[in-house]
Design a protein that fits this description.
Largest sheet: none
Radius of gyration: 20 Å
Mean pLDDT: 92
């Protein structure tokens, strides 16, 4: 794991210190990692919502056998990536 230094103004540093003091986090690093993971999930959700809206706005079509096959391959690939982590 690589180290990254982050500079915070005093009010933000005090806020991070309060989060640690609350007992929910054991270190500033743990708190920052959770914030980053949350941001990743939020961005993925925004992308999904955008794709869903795009799909809703597109002309309706029927799923073909090829469409289902591609969907299954994509899902299997994502499952494999998660299992490898």
């Amino acid at each position: 794991m690589e180290t990254m230094n982050v500079s915070l103004p005093d009010p933000l540093r005090r806020f991070v210190d309060k989060q640690i003091a609350s007992g929910r986090y054991s270190s500033a690093s743990e708190y920052i990692r959770e914030l980053i993971r949350f941001d990743e999930k939020r961005r993925a959700q925004e992308r999904l919502e955008g794709l869903l809206l795009e799909g809703l706005g597109s002309p309706a079509g029927e799923m073909t056998a090829r469409d289902w096959s591609e969907l299954k391959k994509t899902a299997a690939g994502k499952r494999g990536k998660r299992a490898a982590k």
